[in-house]
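Exercise 3.2. Students should predict the tertiary structure of the chain below and write it as structure tokens, then compare their answer with the key that follows.

Predict this chain's 3D structure.
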Amino acid sequence: MPSGLNKEGLPIGMQLIGNHFEEEKLLNIAYAYEQKTKFREKYKPTFKGGNK
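Answer key:
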């Protein structure tokens, strides 16, 4: 999951690891982190490619 940007502005990711069958717990932790840091609001992705 995204957790910040380096000095060049490239995204830095964080990996969450948990026990077997605890995916729901990891998703809740990731969601809480995202809500607290508001990463997606601060760093909206920009797409500069595409089909013409």
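Discussion points: The beta strands are 2-5, 11-13. The mean pLDDT is 85.
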